[in-house]
Amino acid sequence: MIKINNLAKNYGLNPVLRDVNLQVEQGEFVTLVGPNGAGKSTLMRIVATLIKQTSGNVTIGGWPLPQRADKVRRHIGLVSHQSMLYGDLTAAENLSFFARLYRLDDAAARVQQALKTVGLLARQRDPVSTFSRGMVQRLTIARATLHGPDVLLLDEPYTGLDQDAAQLLDDLLLRERGNGRTIFMITHDLVHGLDICDRVVILNRGKIMADIDSKQTTPTEFLDLYAAHTGRKKHE
Amino acid sequence: MNNSNQLSTFWAAVWAVVWKDLQIEKHTRQTISVMIMFSLVSVIMFNFALEANLAAAREVATGLLWSTILLAGTLGLNRSLAIERENQTMEAVLMAPIDRSAIYAGKVISISLFSLALEVVLIFIFIVFFNKPFWRPQVMLILVMGTIGYIAAGVIVTSMTIQTRTREVLLPVLLLPLSLPLVLPASIAVSAYMFPQLPDWGEVQGAISVVAIYDLLMLAAGFITYHYVVES
Question: With a cut of 0.90, is the ipTM above it?
């Protein structure tokens, strides 16, 4: 579903990503981890069609980026640590706006269904600015999945969530994976990232250092590997 | 996708952006109310400053009207584009499968609507304070044309400056000189219709043509360049 070959990205003369090769199969859940400044968010923004690579090839569903970004956009959804929602609009109005942008058939019914799925139907007429962080993140997932994307991109989705909200987010993500969605996530929570996904990829200084099958690795082994590849202590 | 489908997708996206901006304004009333408050205070201050010479005040009323519209317009532009920056909502909009020029067109339409609403109030205030025929249809037509050109240029400039830390300062510094070729002929044309015994009609027609050409140029520049402005 996502194929990245020899990807490089420079900001001016500063290389942020170097020779990145990565493949994510359809229905797979892959977590990308790495220290601050490793290039995780830059990689995510390239896959999300928000910025262009300096060199290398990226294809999503067979469509190359950035040339066919228009095709790719209908098939991806992004959940970030920022809500990407309008605080002054109600939950239903936010989803209606994005339903209009994507020209969804039967938009009103889909908005209602999305709100029901994330448990916000009763709060649909309330402004998003009055929501808790957990509710905002649930609505963000509703926004990102409203148009039925094949690929769900998650950039630090657990930031600022308490334990209950994080558990709710886990349930939603596992449901999305059960629906056959490909999930590509960035997180700082190493153990949780390992626990929830099929594969974990370690990125450091713009290069992929390891690609690990999460079922074949214990959390302790993974933390040791992470420390060895990034030169960081486990708690960093 | 055929041309008819593309056009329909384009206008659906334009309407989505306009609808969203109108909904936000309906809930908050922050943009229009700030523009009106600023304009009201400005007109009162101008009026006090020129009270000693009412005839002079009437002579410069057209210029005062345009100055007020331009300055209040920068407030509206800043507010409307700042909304897109909060919570990175612009990124979610940019990830939608829509033409970037549809976002531009939507923003121009919604901010123009806010400015035109302001101008309805301003015309009433100017009639009360300066006792001049601002209600004439020709004056209103030129105001509408001038507003569209100013906002068309303003959305491009604001989309660039909104990313900077000095956006409140940078916007008027860049936009006001850029709007000079619009405001000068628009003021000439409005003055001509306020003092119909004075005008050289050839000059007035030329001024209106310049305003129309400015509108077309700015709209074309926006449609062509907005893609680069929001993605770089």
Answer: no
